[in-house]
Amino acid sequence: MHEAPDIETASDDYARRFAGPVGAWMLQVQETIVLDLLKEATKASILDVGGGHGQLAIPLCNRGFSVTVHGSDAVCAERIQPQLQQGRCRFITGNILHIPVEDHAYDIVLCFRLLTHCDAWQELVRELCRIARFRIIIDYPTSQSVNSMAPALFSAKKRLEGNTRTWHSFTHSEVEQAFAGNGFALGSLQKQFFLPMALHRTLRLAPLSRVLEGVCHRLGLTRAYGSPVIAEFIRI
């Protein structure tokens, strides 16, 4: 089986979903969480699976982390060319379900913007677990949030955003079970936003979005029902 959803997420068209102040704010929320998780891992070897979008590879490389980006095709490297040309990053290609590296080849494996678009997501989880020596950090949208309304609102979301595509929302238990079956236990779970990202993109007011999400965070709504989730899994 060969899937390549990361070709889309590594494209300029996908990057435009995070253009402007609102997109920069969204990415900053994600980046802050991941950097905090990696603060004691500056010497670790990291594989960013499907990371050609550069959302994490670029800031990590700029901070001196040892990062290799995996992409399904050479085209997935276009957005990280400055880092590659400066020798601050490495790039490998291959099927996301059969990545051409040895077992336990990297200390830490990242996988963002990918699980939700992969039909064979359980096989992808298995592959991530095969490669990671110690830790895996992923993101995923959860149906245990306002995303439970996503199927009914997809047409409206597509009209608002233009370039959105179908995705899979997960329950926390199904993701935990998939990793547990491959020898990894949940280490931490952090939820990024309570309100839909599509709403923030529509508002186009980063200061307002910060205020709204700040209120939701203080009320405990984000902790209870937030999405997408950033989850860290530890080898048992």
Description:
With about 240 residues, the chain is an alpha/beta fold. It starts with 5 loop residues before the first helix and ends with a strand. It has a 7-stranded mixed β-sheet. The chain has helices spanning about 5-10, 10-15, 20-35, 55-60, 80-85, 120-130, 150-160, 170-180, 195-205, 205-220, 220-225; strands spanning about 45-50, 65-70, 90-95, 105-110, 130-140, 185-190, 230-235. It has one domain: 3-Layer(aba) Sandwich (Rossmann fold). It contains 11 helices and 7 strands.
Euclidean distance between termini CA atoms: 28 Å
CATH topology category name? Rossmann fold
Main pleated sheet = 7 strands, mixed
Q: Which overall shape is indicated by the principal axes computed on the Cα atoms?
A: globular
Radius of gyration, in angstroms, nearest whole number: 17 Å
> What strand line-up does the widest sheet have?
3-2-1-4-5-7-6
Write the layout of secondary structure elements.
Elements: H1 6-9, H2 12-15, H3 20-37, E1 45-49, H4 57-62, E2 66-71, H5 81-85, E3 90-93, E4 106-111, H6 121-131, E5 132-140, H7 150-161, H8 172-180, E6 184-191, H9 197-203, H10 206-218, H11 221-225, E7 229-235
Parallel strand pairs: 1-2, 1-4, 2-3, 4-5
Antiparallel strand pairs: 5-7, 6-7
Helix pairs in contact: 3-10
